Amino acid sequence: MNTEVSLFGYMLQMRSHLLANKITEIHQLRNHSPEPDRKEIIEWRSKLFQHLGFALSEDYEKAQAEIQDWADFQEQKVPHEYSLTYYLNSVFYSRKLILCVLENEIKDNTVSPAALLEILKVIDPLLDHATSSLTNNYTKNTYSTETDEDLIITLEELKDFKFALNEATIFAVTDQNNTISYVNDHFCKISKYSRDELIGKNHGEIFKSGYHTEEYLNNILHSIQQGKVWKGEICNKAKDGTLYWVDTTIIPYLNFDGKTYKHISIQYDITEQKKTEEMLLKSEKLSLVGELAAGLAHEIRNPLTTIKGLVQVLQETTEDKKVVYSDIILTEIDRINYIVSEFMVLAKPHAIYFTECSLTDILKKVIYLLEAEANLKNVVIINDFNDEDVILYGEKNQLTQVFVNLLKNAMEALPNGGIIRVSTSLVKDKVRISIEDNGVGMTEEQVKKIGEPFYTTKATGTGLGLMVSYKIIQNHKGSISVKSELNKGTTFDITFPLIENNAMNTYSTTNK
């Protein structure tokens, strides 16, 4: 994490209790109730801000585990007498407050737009994790404390549940065929349809915006039919043709046979938030284009200077030297071509189509491809794969490119030979791939610059290979981290979500 992100994380931890009390004020305004929330609830909300701050300033994976524990009502001794929406709203309002704080920090120039994007990339998955964990724990605790008779959902109970959700959310109920049976006023307002126009219509068809692929939408349905809660963002089309974004949680209801017979959709309007994020992203892209253009000009100017000088003396030299100079010119032209090709991978939009692919097969193929080169350099590649094959949802050729780049870099860090260890391990709902070498290593300053355009520790390199790899990993909802010590070696850790989680949140898209 950079300094701005870490400092914001520490600030969240320090202000956690203040922000938790702010949520209480929001609840009172929303519910028109002067009654304050109980002390245990406020402490519980405060812990969420502390965990988010800890993820930004110190340890993401530890914070993720702590949020899992935070969502356990019985473990945290949190009152279980309120509705599920009440608890989910705590997560939703937490994000709203963090965005408000960030806006103020940006106005005061204490947080840059780039840092804001990095902060959101950290906290958004954690808040999604908090939402799904809360829903699962709430359902589990409710199930364990109710009798069989209580589990029969009566019409009266459903009406009570609808009433609780009507005030705070965009809410709908659909049957097993995705036919709408109920919508609240907020749903009608954002979609610009009347209730009569919506009842009996297919939810997926009437709001189809064309933004999402069929594969993405089918993954949502598949998840619901499996009885799993789905959480994500959806772009819908209103009656007048305008598009709007909603943060959506879909909760299926199962009968005694374990089959889905209806599901509820709880949504929040995030259209303005998406517009703000898009503007920030465009700003970030313009900044990156300028940086890339400057780097590209510098990298191309060097070989062009060499070519120009050799061409000027080519006609005045001997035949032997003409051959040598011609070879150098061709080499420099190849170098320019390589730089431009790598740059085009970053700059040119192209479609990415995700499929199921075996991580073990990809890694074995990469090791086989590089085996001859490794032998020539006296490098031994050891694989230590997880016993059970791991299936990822992604683009096989791009994943292959990532591991080829990382292994080649590892070999180049072993000028006198050495060992590279490639290992895989399962960490909760993710798979981790570690590529470790005992080579020359890097300084702390060098590690910080890894992944920047045109930064390289090699004598002949552009730094674009790692930048492309970082972008591919990001497009696959993954993350990458680097640990290195000078003269001792380097370890790259790459994590990807397992297919069960990745398939519902990753879809065919355009690489921008």
Strand and helix map with partners:
Layout: H1 3-14, H2 16-31, H3 39-57, H4 60-70, H5 73-76, H6 84-107, H7 113-145, H8 148-151, H9 155-166, E1 170-175, E2 180-183, H10 185-191, H11 195-198, H12 203-206, H13 214-225, E3 230-237, E4 243-254, E5 260-269, H14 271-314, H15 319-347, E6 350-352, E7 355-358, H16 359-376, E8 379-384, E9 391-394, H17 396-412, E10 418-427, E11 430-437, H18 444-449, H19 464-475, E12 479-485, E13 489-497, H20 499-502, E14 509-511
Parallel strand pairs: 8-10
Antiparallel strand pairs: 1-2, 1-5, 3-4, 4-5, 6-14, 7-9, 10-11, 11-13, 12-13
Helix pairs in contact: 1-3, 2-3, 2-6, 3-4, 4-7, 6-7, 14-15, 15-19, 16-17, 17-19
GO molecular function: ATP binding; phosphorelay sensor kinase activity
Protein name: histidine kinase
Domain Histidine kinase: 295-500
Folded structure, characterized:
The chain has 512 residues and is an alpha+beta fold. The chain folds into 4 domains: 145 residues; 122 residues, Beta-Lactamase, CATH 3.30.450.20; 73 residues, Orthogonal Bundle (Helix Hairpins); 161 residues, Histidine kinase-like ATPase, C-terminal domain (Heat Shock Protein 90). The protein is 57% helix and 18% strand. A 5-stranded antiparallel β-sheet has the order 2-1-5-4-3, sandwiched between helices. A 5-stranded mixed β-sheet has the order 8-10-11-13-12. The chain is elongated and about 95 Å long.
Quick take:
GO terms for molecular function: ATP binding; phosphorelay sensor kinase activity. The chain is of the alpha+beta class and 512 residues long.
